Amino acid sequence: xxxxxxxxxxxARKAAYENGSAQENSYTCYLFEKGVDKICKKVGEEAAETxxxxxxxxxNELANEINDxxxxxxxxxxxxxxxxxxxxxxxxxxxxxxxxxKQFHQVDKNT
Length: 111
Description:
Helices cover 69% and strands 0% of the residues. By secondary structure, it is mostly helical. Helix 1 (3-18) crosses helix 4 (59-79). The radius of gyration is 18 Å and the shape is globular.
């Protein structure tokens, strides 16, 4: 299943939740029921777990945590009414800028 197909399933679960026909025991519907604060909390937790997995140098764990993070980000996007195509459009725009190294401001912390 592609990311786009997964996002469509998430949107379908949101619609089912909103019209009162949520699938029983659906974690996705549970998140929509709890709202944006719970979803944001899960995004934060999964981001931290992704960092830990990367630091542990366990690529299997890392792949699983990236999947969890991506899923919760997609739920957040659906909750806020953001289409995945909007995210992809920005990704495409940024890909056009590949090779444009940003100049970072160096701060002298000793002064």
